[in-house]
Amino acid sequence: xxxxxxxxxxxxxxxxxxxxxxxxxxxxxxxxxxxxxxxxxxxxxxxxxxxxxxxxxxxxxxxxxxxxxxxxxxxxxxxxxxxxxxxxxxxxxxxxxxxxxxxxxxxxxxxxxxxxxxxxxxxxxxxxxxxxxxxxxxxxxxxxxxxxxxxxxxxxxxxxxxxxxxxxxxxxxxxxxxxxxxxxxxxxxxxxxxxxxxxxxxxxxxxxxxxxxxx
Length: 215
Description:
By secondary structure, the protein is α+β, with helices and mostly antiparallel strands. It folds into two domains: 3-25 and 154-211; 32-146, Immunoglobulin-like. Helices cover 31% and strands 29% of the residues. Strands 1-2-3-6-5-4-7-8 form an eight-stranded antiparallel beta sheet, with no helix packed on it. Strand 5 (89-93) and strand 6 form a beta hairpin. The longest helix is centred in the C-terminal third of the chain and has 24 residues, at 188-211. It is elongated and about 75 Å long. Mean pLDDT is 77; it is low at 145-152.
């Protein structure tokens, strides 16, 4: 294989990897469930959930989708198969956010958890259990200021820099009279390489989100 052909394939790999990084990604929806007369929506800060201390945000709405204020809300976040000394925490109303309550929580280790939300409000009492896991992106609560509507722009900074590098390579190729050969880009060996690179990138991103600790 000629050096020029190797160069074309390397450039094509970078180009397709950048394109894959910029594929649209839907916003993460906060987990929610129905508990008696209440619709319970939950979000965790920080999100994605990491090992360590966190804050659980709970939004309550009634059958007509109106925020429920004045309720007594408590939260217990624990691993369903292992007792680790977790205690029930009283949730406090969040100023300026109708129907939203917050309580401290702790994710002592990586794995599956459940949030047990107990409600005593104007429409009676209810309890909900919502599964959670470390590495999960709980998004933001609907109808609240500051709710997440998609990935943070900071996530794309490395790809923007890489894209700038690709643009520079294209510019240099044009200046030197070189042309990109698409038959090389679409070769099966090249496509397999790209798939492997994307898989490694996604695996690394998942590992960072699931196992990172605050700070």
